[in-house]
Amino acid sequence: MTPRKDLLDIASLSNEEIEFVLANAAPFKDLFRRSVKKVPPLRGRTVLTLFYEPSTRTRSSFEVAASRLSADVTHFDVELSSVVKGESILDTVETLEAMQLDYIVVRHKQAGIPNLIARNTAASVINAGDGWHAHPTQALLDAFTAREVLQDLNGRKALIVGDIQHSRVARSTSLIFRRLGMDVAYLAPGSLMPRQIPDEIQTFGNWQDAFDWTPDIVYLLRVQSERLDEPFFPSATEYHNNFGLTDARLKVLSDRKLWLMHPGPVNRGVEITDAGMNYERSLINQQVENGIAVRMSVLYWLRPGAAPAV
Amino acid sequence: MKRLYKNAQIASADSPKLQTADVLVEGDRIIGVAASINDAADAELIDCTGCVLLPALFDIHVHAREPGQEQKENIASCAEAAINGGVTGFIMMPNTTPAIDNAGVVRTVLESARRTRIGASIYTAGAITKGRRGEELAGIAAMKNAGAVLLTDDGFPVDNPQVLRRAMEYARDHDLPLASHCEVKELSGKGSMHEGSVSYSLGLPGIPSISEEICIARDIRLAEFTGTHLNIQHVTTARGMDTIWRAKQRGIRVTCEIAPHHLMFNHEDIGDFDTHYKMNPPLRTKEDNAALLEGLIAGKFDVIATDHAPHTPFEKNQDFASAPFGITGLETALVSLYDRYIAKGIFGWDVIVKHYSAQPRTLFKLPTVPITEGGTAEFIVFNPNRSTTFRREFMKSKSLNTPFLDKELQGHIERVIYRGEELLAR
User: Fold this and answer.
1) Residue A41 belongs to what domain range?
2) Are residues B192 and B97 located together in one domain of the fold?
3) How many domains does one find in chain A?
4) Of the listed B154, B307, B339, B350, which one is catalytic?
5) Co-location of A249 and A268 in the same domain
6) Helices (H), B39-189
7) A49 to chain B, minimum CA–CA distance in Å?
8) pTM of the model
9) ipTM
10) d(CA B224, CA B201)
11) Can B307 be counted among the known catalytic residues?
12) Confidence at A56, pLDDT banded by 50, 70, 90
């Protein structure tokens, strides 16, 4: 396995790399049961989180992961910085470059920004979500979580439900699930279903057909109201009635013992109900915990000067 | 002084066959074209063995960026870039700052053009509407009197069909063609590339083909209704091309352009968010490439035009959505068309001469420059056996935003002759 500088998307990873990251996440997760959760591999390394889009959860997850590996963690406060004065991204990167950081964890509302930064810095760039493009650490933690409950994913089925069009989670998680042998289907209103998706992904327009497909995992996406600047559906209520996990649909999950996932944060009453949040096979909290372990594994894997892994 | 271009292969618009001949030039005229000219002892001898002589090119779609965007290009650098690519005349687009939307600006840019080495052959378009805002008609008659040869809001469509109808009626009465950048802006939205499989995987908002196709259909219908000569700029889809072709067969006065990049590249070339493949209208699909190429060979396009659109490295070195649309084309068009098509036998030299030299001039009632006795000496000496590497030092444009940067392509422009004068010899 050749050493890699950046983690920008799932598509460019080899299966070997995916397995390497997932395999190393397990021992990191075991640490969380100890009273001292910190290990030394990144001592003296600096991790900077550069978030151009608000995200408490992902940012905290990275910061906790980096701290548990003994790295120094700094947050570049975009709101207060010169970014608001119109400084270009590359000017910012040049400034950061002078600080000789080891990692830059970046989130941005435009697709491809992490790729642009990665081409212009010696630091390892980790994409923490860029536009509708990719969210590779989310995909890795989803795969790790799915394996915890299903073991071998080969031949299993995941139904991803919601705003596929604007979802980097749908793109990245569907990729990794398929890499690990799963079948993936999308369920979305036509207005939020991209017209050209890979042939291997089935599409459904209603829950009945989707249930008939017999998924093992139902993965709900957040309705990104902040990204919906056009009328993609008439109202949140109508969305809930047609595409949300209503109590009646939750009962189908329960009867069939299906697993429920969601990348968070949820919109209660839109894609999910209170009852759904308390569903016994909900993996939502497990996803959060695994997020830290998987991000530790990613940071460890990309550590500067790392010898090719065996 | 006379110059004798000895043993050349002459290209023409009429036949893919090249004719071996000597060409004798005196002053600005071709005074002899014959199988063998041996009685010109006083002429400078230029051995053209193995080289193709073709009429110099004319590009009807060029962004010279003057006034106001001189960090990208100015008319002087644009003229040199044109010469570097064998283009000895072009039409400037009016999306400058301020827009070329009144007689004063028209006169200013033409004055600037006159100071270049191909000054007499640089023309300008004027905007259809004031500030290219699509609201009020620009001073069309005054711009025509000042020398504008075309009306367009290029870069934008005229959204309001009533405004476009009035503009067409006005253009018709002033005998000016009107060129449309076809796009329904609401359908394009925030799109930065073709809506398709690649926009899905890159997570970029897409510009659907229907955005262009619907506007083509609308504008043609308006042109038919008003009887105006409409030129559809940079056609990118098979369906758009077919719509235009059907309109032509019905006798509607519509012409259209194909840009080399829409023949050669498609959305898959964007790869890792490479902004050198970002233009508007966007690169479409492989299937569109094939259909457009077939269309060009079948004569469905009137002209090849580059939509030469310079942008600085700083502007292009942004994320894909933020980077501006457009690539340069003047310097690379001929060599790339040779490399991709003529060298491979996909089409002959006649396609280039017809669509990139003769018809663009005819469209604007300008004399063509075939290589014939008594004609204007305005031609290119092209060496198919040499290659060209489009290095920074080679380029004369102020900008380098082309996918061909640092690429080596087959074919080399050795000489460019403009009205008898050798503007370039290498």
Assistant:
1) 15-135+289-301
2) yes
3) 2
4) B307
5) yes
6) 75-84, 103-114, 140-146, 161-173, 185-188
7) 19
8) 0.94
9) 0.93
10) 40
11) yes
12) confident
